[in-house]
Amino acid sequence: MRVSSYSFTRYAVKAINDKQQTIAKLQTEIGTGKKLLSPSDSPSEVATAENLSASIQRVQQYEMNTTLASQRLTQEETVLTHVSDALTRMKELAIQANTGILSAGDKAAISAEASAIRGQLLDYANSQTPSGDYLFAGGKGDTKPFNDEGSIAYRGDQTDRYIQISDSRRVKSTDSGDRIFSRILDGNGVFSTVADVGNSGTGMIEGGTVTAIAAYQPKAHSISFTDPAHYEVRDDAGNLVTSGAYSPGQGISFNGLEVSINGAPDTGDQFIVKPAANTNVFDFVDNFVSALNTAVHSDTDQASYYQAMGQAIGNLDRSIEHIQSRRSDLGSRLSYIDTTVAENKSIDYLLNKTRGEIEDTDFAKAASDLQYQMTTLDAVRKTYLQMQSMSLFNYM
């Protein structure tokens, strides 16, 4: 079979060019660390790698989201720790004030410290994030949630903000100031007790307990003294529920609950038992300070003072419990974030590993292939040069 010099030259040049292109590609793979340099290299693998890259970017966004959520919730937890400490100190002051050996100066000093703590609580309630948003304003981050206008009311909203932290998980990153500072049930959390402001005796009602929750109905009742030795209990419709002879400290049971009254009530004195209502912590503090600043001129005034101190201690207890429950909830959310972060890291590792197996250069194989291609290229060149130099004249 005859092979023309033209055909051989064309074949040899093509072989050399193909080898050079293969070598150039291998050198680029080694230099960049990537074996998929263009979609034409392997369309299916390139598509898979692109999908994996999109998933990795999404996981990286979740990582930023978890950092943001964790920072915000950690700040909130720190603030609520300060709030709890402030309320605990306020309770200590209330216990200190609930004695009969305080002078007017002592009460003034306690009142001054309590007022200062009230200011601290207001500052905590108006805490801001590093970006300037109000921490407890709900969805109205640019609105100061609590303003002191004689009384303190919430001016944010009830919006809960959530942050996506994985494909299937999101976490609540905010708590409204209303939920933190204003939804605190007074009394014992089920019902509250209060002495009527018009009482003329020295009777004081205790906080009471629920004795039969199934029998309890959330409606108001009054305990009225028909004379200093007898009482009657009526519901909010005026119906007589029970009555009896009064004995200081003895339990009075009705509506699935029990309360006791101490002191010496006068005829016509009245005590109210009503369902617990949501109250804000600032009202509890204001009532405490107001009682401290009220002058005591009689035994009746003294009884009213002790009644107010007892209520203040009970309400501060409820406030502390409420803040602790919010902190517990924050701890659960932070733990949820930590678990998700660990899972996201595992997913990110697997995604990167899989993508790497598809698009990253196998350096050992690439180096071996490069050496082979360079050797064969050298052989093709030598063969071509030898063939080019061959001539019949060499044999004549």
Describe this structure in words.
This protein is of the alpha+beta class and 396 residues long. It folds into two domains: 36-186 and 280-360, Up-down Bundle (f41 fragment of flagellin, N-terminal domain); 191-276, no CATH class. It has helices at 5-32, 43-97, 104-125, 177-182, 281-292, 299-359, 363-389; strands spanning 146-149, 151-154, 162-164, 170-172, 184-185, 191-195, 204-205, 209-210, 221-227, 230-235, 240-245, 251-254, 257-262, 270-275, 278-279. The strands form five sheets. A five-stranded antiparallel sheet has the order 6-14-9-10-11. Strands 7, 8, 12 and 13 form a four-stranded antiparallel sheet that branches. The chain has a two-stranded antiparallel ribbon with strand order 1-2. Strand 12 (251-254) and strand 13 (257-262) form a beta hairpin. Helix 2 (43-97) runs antiparallel to helix 3, helix 2 (43-97) runs antiparallel to helix 6 and helix 3 (104-125) packs antiparallel against helix 5. It is rod-shaped, with a radius of gyration of 41 Å.
